[in-house]
C-alpha cells in the first residue's frame, strides 16, 4: 500500500523542497531553477516561471511559498540606502570576548543593523549598519554596540559610495 501512495504522488510533490534529517532544506533542480528565475526578476509571474521550469502556475506558487516558509529565500525590494534618505552606511568589525552568538543576537535586534555574520579572521563579527547621518552612526556604534557585554573593540568602515549590490549569485 505504501508504494502505491508514493507512486501516485505527482513529480512536483515528490521533488518539492523538504528538510533533511539535519533540518536543512533539501532543494531539487526545479526549486533551484525557481530561485534563479526569481533572482533574475523578483516580480516574474508564476505562470512564466512555470513555463521556464516545466511546472504549472499553482505548483510554482506552492513551491515558492514553501521556500519562503522554510527560510530558504526572501522576496524583497533592494534599494541603495543612500538614495532613500539614509546618508551613512558602514561595515563594523567587532572583536569579542566570550560568547560571540549572544553579541550577534543583540546586533540582530537593532533596527539599524542590516547584516550580521560571525567570522573567522581579524574580526569575530561583521555588522552592516544603515543610519540617517554621522551622528546616528556614532550613537549606534558608541552607545549601543560598544556597550554590549563581550564587545572588546570595533573598527568601522564607512561607505563612501555603493558601486555594486546584487543578489544574483544564482544557485550553483
Any overview of this molecule?
The structure is a single chain. With 172 residues, the protein is of the alpha+beta class. Helices cover 38% and strands 20% of the residues. The chain has 7 helices and 6 strands. A hairpin with a 5-residue loop joins strand 1 and strand 2. The two termini are 38 Å apart.
Compile the SSE list and pairings.
Blueprint: H1 2-8, H2 11-14, E1 18-19, E2 25-26, H3 29-40, H4 46-53, H5 57-69, E3 88-96, H6 100-108, E4 113-118, E5 125-131, H7 134-145, E6 151-158
Helix pairs in contact: 3-4, 4-5
Alpha carbon gyration radius: 21 Å
Our count of helices gives 7
Which regions are unreliable across 5 or more consecutive residues at pLDDT < 50?
1-15
Alpha carbon gap, first and last residue: 38 Å
Tags for this model:
172 residues; alpha+beta; four-stranded antiparallel beta sheet; 6 strands; elongated; disordered N terminus
Could you provide a short overview of the structure?
The chain is of the alpha+beta class and 172 residues long. It has seven helices and six strands. The longest helix has 13 residues, at 57-69.
Amino acid at each position: 500500500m505504501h508504494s502505491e501512495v508514493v507512486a501516485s504522488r505527482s513529480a512536483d510533490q515528490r521533488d518539492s523542497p523538504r528538510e533533511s534529517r539535519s533540518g536543512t532544506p533539501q532543494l531539487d533542480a526545479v526549486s533551484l531553477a525557481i530561485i534563479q528565475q526569481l533572482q533574475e526578476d523578483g516580480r516574474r509571474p508564476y505562470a512564466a516561471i512555470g513555463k521556464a521550469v516545466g511546472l504549472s502556475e499553482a505548483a510554482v506558487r506552492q513551491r515558492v511559498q514553501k521556500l519562503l516558509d522554510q527560510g530558504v529565500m526572501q522576496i524583497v525590494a533592494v534599494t541603495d540606502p543612500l538614495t532613500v534618505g539614509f546618508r551613512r552606511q558602514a561595515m563594523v568589525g567587532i572583536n569579542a570576548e566570550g560568547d560571540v552568538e549572544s553579541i550577534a543576537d543583540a546586533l540582530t535586534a537593532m533596527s539599524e543593523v542590516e547584516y550580521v555574520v560571525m567570522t573567522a579572521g581579524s574580526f569575530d563579527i561583521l555588522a552592516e549598519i544603515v543610519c540617517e547621518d554621522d551622528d546616528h552612526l556614532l550613537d549606534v556604534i558608541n552607545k549601543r554596540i560598544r556597550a554590549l557585554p563581550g564587545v572588546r573593540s570595533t573598527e568601522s568602515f564607512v561607505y563612501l559610495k555603493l558601486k555594486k549590490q546584487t543578489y544574483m549569485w544564482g544557485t550553483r
